[in-house]
Design goal:
The structure is a homooctamer.
Chain A: H1 3-14, H2 20-29, H3 34-48, E1 54-55, H4 61-73, E2 79-82, H5 86-93, E3 99-102, E4 107-110, E5 121-126, H6 132-144, E6 148-153, H7 160-164, H8 167-172, E7 175-180, H9 186-193, E8 198-202, H10 214-221, E9 228-230, H11 236-251
Parallel strand pairs in A: 1-2, 5-6, 5-7, 7-8, 8-9
Antiparallel strand pairs in A: 2-4, 3-4
Helix pairs in contact in A: 4-5, 6-11
């Protein structure tokens, strides 16, 4: 319910086409239901033109298919599913063939539609080869939301020259996502080289005293480099989404 | 050392005012010391006009005084010291009277100088009264770096109506800092209400199974709200610095 | 052994049908064995009419079948088994067809029998889709014990309007169960909206720094909302049982 | 803002004493501000007749004094402050002499006023002498909220006969609070003896591998006794408040 | 090298059949090699008549078979293997049919031989059905080492009357092993009832905040009952072995 | 209430000096109160002649004094207080001068009385100098309970020859207490050298990743040496008490 | 790029064969790219003659094959792959038959080539049979890098005589690697016996409160023996590599 | 007992001044006592010329003074005390004025004596100003043991140019000690730049989710740079001692 439909109600009440009781009921329901729901949805649609994202892990396949069917029936485009697998991909193909599957990033986009892209770019760094899936989840998420994305993988601090040789790339990004497992030192080093917002994504890559990503998480949280913050372990989507928000603040308006 | 001073060196070398050996020595030192050092400094100076920040906790007072004296001798302005106490304030007064002391935020600014301020604003939310010092550390940091800052304190989720009644304030911010101890739920709720970048600052406020801020930290990292990230426990400065970076990307250029 | 059988013993002793030694032996055994055992069992039967609940996880199937057979032989009704799976269901069908299987809630009821139901109701909230199995375990447990149960699922704080739009439902419950994984913020928000006893059930739903439900558990324990307490991670049964106790205190007597 | 004041607005709008724009503005603000705020407050006042509770730990004394002064100016009675110390007590005496100080329970009640008390009672159990402060915090909280409270202290499981000899006391309570540090086994044992709601309060009493109450907390969460739940470590107030809610459901209406 | 071979050396040296240097060399090597090795082995054989125990978990089956073959070739009896599975049992049958397999306890005894048994007994308590495998590992270990063993299972504190009704059994044991998962409260309760050495065996039985036995381990370590100690989680063998040591101190000499 | 007093009751009842109702009431109260209480106390008194031990940490001094006064009024001897400090010692001197204060072991014995001592002995090992207080707590506890105690301190594994040179002392003990902080390796080494029951006492001695004794605790729990178990961190009393139980089983009867 | 090529550039610039702009570009790129990259690679090749090591865990097989193919095309010898499995071995055989597969150590060497070996040796100790894979990973790594390696397995502290009997072997090593799970006490004992650098490798071997190697890790970090340090849990390769570095410092130059 | 005294025994036995039984007894006791003790001590003295190091933390001052007095009476030089404070310094001055006190490093050397120094050097790196005390403990320890030591402080990765500009210093060291708190990334970066043994010393410097050095410890253990290992948190002495061992292997022999 938007401002105009409220005006209609007010007019009807004034013209005695609506009783005082009904008018009161409408007013009382406004904030909690449609208007609030609509506000957030419109907000979301207006800004990036995408419906709700479906986090697939832990959901039954039949539920996932049901949700996508419902959204398709409303004509939604660029429906984003994260943490998918081949089984989900197969199931979805039974209802539509119009979908892109990024296997490594575990992402599916239903009804993909090309969008205008930002001038400024998001840079996604990955420390090692094993961090690729999470890095790709971040990169593709950002691309789906209409951002230009640069990738720089396998630039862990153990071979810091590879990182230093790309300092121009680092400096030209508007926001940088650092994906790193093991000791997660990449965030700190990058933070000392550039002056743009940094989003750290600790990964569960590692063994022994890595404790499922805890080592990288703690290291990133304790980074002495200013301008950085951290998302949950392996949360590539969260980093891509936040980076998109930041990237679009200056470059699109 | 900047590009111009390198040009000078090259010219001198060409004119035989500089030997090959000296030229080689200068070149070899360039990237690692002066040029690199200068690049970062200039970068920093050009963008926000502030020298290095001094994190005071754990440093000897004589060292802090020494660093500030050195910076004053170079004419630095708006020197920012975080995590200070009354003892540090007293010691610094022996070398200069030109300083502002924000006791609750544990911040001192030496040679404070009024700066132009951004049009867009950073909103700092604090869940409870006990989160004030950390919230103020974030807010004043952001102000020192030239940002307009709004404050909304004591809006914890236990009284969610206070938060909901300020939804316009939430929506008008360009970036929001959420400072919360206990269970840190504020970040998730705010994340569901707005579509701007959110920076969570878990605080060590609480008792029992709070474990020094661990409860709030884990809660914020696991927030199901998109567009948020987290800094270290009690790290108000880090949040203020990152928020400033994000806020300035669109509003100043 | 009840009061009457003790009277019999005393009479026999007085009439010299029982020696002093035998009488002493009987007295010494009284509290520890039958009388105590009987008291607790009767207590349980009288109040809610259900035998012991069988927690199935970690028990051999043959043992589970054996226990149920034994209870059936005594004519027990509404025998409740929790944490069952399809294999257990198949095994039980070999001894009786009179059983209800709630697959998602992992509950079986043998010899189900309709009971009178409370006037007041228990409300079960679930933050997300993945929390359904635990929420259903709580809801069905409460129903089996004769409570009226309302369900409100997928009302996580990231979309708080959905929760706010149901505030009448929240306020009409006599006790509320909050099932939530991730950051578990639902408990705090609900606690700020209503004034009824709240039982938090953290779930192991989540990833990364969720650490098997630890994040939600700590968040719920640290909730700043009054009137709430917490059961073990994923312990839907425990929440349902406690809610039933509370709900029946006022509504049945 | 209540229903009547909304009616007034509607009337004014109909009579053209209020412009459409102003009417729209009023409607949009309704749910988030006064009405919502008022609803919760009245709810609280109507049910138990007490204003907000002040958790004193971590708050500046001047702030605590300020809050109490404000509440006194509105004529509030039975203002409850928890986690106080002698210093706070001294400071409060400068603004009013009408206060009760429970030193061991670390509670102050300003403007205390005798209230009618419930017929049913809350039983507070404490395992050891060192658990007294937390137990008293729970007991006095419950008394302040108008409940009859029974106390049974030093009944730890190492001397289980002391507990067993009081089984009548256990069975006559409407809700039981179990306060225990060390291994927190009291909750499980009591849970096996009675069929009333149990609230466990793990305390930080202990040493070595107790880890500040973690041992008791985990033990209580894993209790195999049905009908129990747990509050935060040392959270006597939370237990007393919840117990009051439960106790009043049946006994007062 | 034994006492006799040393005598030989001394004689040779005295008779100048061995140089002073060679004699010195022999003496210096003595403690580190054979004599020390022999001493410990004999000690073990003399006292309880059993060879080294084989902990099977994590060992390759071919290695386990090899070790047993080697021991059989030396005529060892009552060879004890713990943490075995069906696969190991099958493999061992290819080299000998003379073995007992306790499936639930995961124990195999090769070349079993009946031994004289102690007069005094070890009591093994298990809190719940799921603790049986660990309890049986303890019980059978103790029996293999020649102890009389009593069993009392499913006597968890949630039904404390079952435990209390067996107080004579508790008091007649010379040492008690308490096997319990969940919250591990059994150790504390038993410790308050009897005055014999207690060995707690926390098990990994449980879920949620049990954290693989940590809850029971911490609870048992913090038990306020005197006379108890704890072995590693699920370490039934260790408890049985220690109990045997204690039981035999008085009863056999 | 003992067997004789029950006989009296039975006789009175038979002689009609006691009504059936009164007899029933007496019987019902028997197990839970006096008889049970008396049984445990007598058990304790008969075996070692000592009253309840007073753990002083966390108790108010006035309470400690009160408990001791009460025990003195009943003529108790050898009243043992653990974890005392100088302040407690001073306070107790105001009520009696007949007390021994072991400052390093933090133990006071009120009304000390020489007892007969066991033939067999308990050996207390301490790895380092900093472990002395805990080792002495164990040693003196054992002595107070009438055991012969040997001490062998500063025999940590870093200088293993010191331990090996005392192998006769190790082998002559009936039970050994190993007190060790840091990495707690002493227990494992001793366990490989002897075949007597071992009680490990991890201490909080250490720094860094010692985490308050956690490192030593985990190491001791994981010891691969058979025949050992562990008490809580720094729990010298618990080790001494258990060692006394074991030592007296064979040596006194 | 080396000093000579820089001289060339300078000469060209002086002779106007290179523009100022190109000269500036060359200077700016110097440290970050080729020179740095080349330096490290040559460093590595010159010192030990081996290319980069491939850590295989978590890498896709096609990636591993691709990397090895690439290295083979450049004529690399002694290509070391760690954490391999049979599947990787099969895949690699499709591109070359010239490879050694150490199944237990999970190592493959492609294009193996015999190298001169050090005079001094590295000693690898393993506490138990289950530690073999990690110990072999360390030993073979060291051998591949051209070190003489001694092995001493199954010398855990529970049978310390086996270790003591080999004291000459311990003392003759130039560096010792201690591989141990469970309580990790081997490091401390060896540290007290010898005066050479010790590298501890905690393993995840164990159960219960071992927590995946945490117990051994903490124990080794807290070892009171001087001259030791620790690598990550199960990190045999890291230990072998470091030991090689230390061993070669004296023995080869 | 040394080789000469054994010769005496042999001679006496040969001359029938010692019976075979007494000779046998002497031989059996040999390994455990004097001979072993002497061997290790001489080893230590011969190699580095220093007596046992005294770790002062947790020791009573009177004990420390006693130990030093005893060592002085035997003419020991360069007696090293670590973790001292001013109080210990004052106490030691009462027995000797011949001592050096390094306040920041918390080290005292009694009877200091200049020693020959190694040609090769140990490099001590410190990430930040707050890591100085631990870095100095490492550096001075290494110097006391006769090593040439280089220092490079305040070279944390947030300003990586400072580190890169000193790459020659890094490469010229024979072993490098990396002292770092916060996220401990320094070790990884340095490990990627050089090919010498690296010893990581995590420090407890930091706040929030640093958890007393745990973050730096885990990060260093998970470092992906080869050739590194880690000592306990804040263990500067351990790092200095190990570095000395490694440095002297090649440079002195």
């Amino acid at each position: 319910m938007n401002r105009d439909s409220i005006k209609d109600l007010l007019l009807k009440y004034k013209n005695d086409e609506l009783s005082e009781d009904d008018m009161l009921k409408n007013i009382e329901e406004l904030p909690y239901s449609d208007l609030d729901y609509a506000k957030i949805d419109h907000h979301r649609e207006i800004r990036n033109g995408y419906p709700e994202v479906i986090y697939s892990e832990g959901k039954a396949i039949k539920h996932i298919v049901g949700i996508v069917e419902n959204m398709l029936s409303k004509g939604e485009e660029n429906i984003l599913l994260t943490r998918v697998n081949a089984e989900i991909y197969d199931a979805l193909q039974s209802i539509t063939k119009n979908l892109d599957y990024f296997e490594e990033a575990r992402i599916i986009i239903v009804n993909p539609k090309v969008k205008a892209t930002t001038d400024t770019s998001i840079l996604v760094l990955a420390a090692g080869t094993a961090d690729y899936p999470v890095a790709e989840e971040a990169a593709i998420t950002a691309e789906v939301f209409g951002n230009r994305v640069e990738r720089l993988y396998d630039v862990g601090v153990a071979g810091i020259h590879r990182l230093l040789s790309k300092i121009d790339v680092l400096n030209s990004a508007k926001v940088i996502i650092c994906v790193a497992g093991m000791e997660g030192a990449l965030l700190s080093v990058v933070g000392g080289l550039v002056d743009v917002p940094l989003i750290g994504v600790p990964t569960s890559v590692g063994y022994g005293a890595n404790f499922g990503g805890l080592a990288a998480l703690l290291a990133m949280l304790n980074s002495c480099a200013s301008g950085s913050s951290v998302v949950n372990i392996d949360n590539g989507f969260g980093a891509g989404y936040l980076a998109s928000m930041i990237n679009k603040q200056g470059g699109i308006k």
